[in-house]
Description:
The chain is an all-alpha fold. The protein has helices spanning 2-23, 26-46, 51-71, 76-96, 104-122, 127-135, 146-176, 179-188, 191-208. The chain crosses the membrane at residues 51-70, 77-94, 114-136, 157-177, 183-205.
Amino acid sequence: MDSDRSRTDTGASTAERDSLLRLLGGRASALDASLPPVAFGLVWVLSGESIAAAGVSAVAVGAVIGVWRLVSGARPLAVLFSLLAVLVGSIIALRTGQAVDFYLIRLGSNAVSGLAWMISIAVRWPLLGLVVGTLLGQRTRWRRDPDLLRAYSRASWIWVGQYVTRLAVFVPLWMLGAVVPLSIAQVVLTWPLVVLCVVVSWWVLRRTLPSGHPGIRHARAPEGSVR
């Protein structure tokens, strides 16, 4: 009986962890973030370091991905922001004459995102809880559950680490003007890092929630409170 319950709990945990990965973007978001920069770096090399050719290629790849995402049911606003980031990066590189500046928009977005996650933890509105709670239809009910609030706060630090890791790699490469290594780093530190982040943050969530807690889909009101 205990072994059956253990297998059931493990299966449920795996399913919820996989659901968390889908809720937070999954492979589709990784394509948005990694393929246009790869196209930029590849075409920049093949075209004899032409920033214009590289920028046009990156925007074209971003547009194709955007159309595919829209057909697949993605939110139009999310697709627009992804394409806009590629377009702005291309314009910056053209204006400065430095191909490496194509990645400035991504350096900035990672810095802002990391800061936003830290602030959200400090004010007890951890972004992981806001994102997952909203997508699960809980709105902010999870904040009335002290265990979930604590678990989301701790797990959110893993996501802060994700942005800090990217900046620790991206900034030195940008300062060195390393276009090709930056393109490669975009791939290595996108989908693989997101998967690792989800797995570790899910482990932190599970470890933080007390035994017997129903899980992230079921927020509990504190004892003695009125629902």
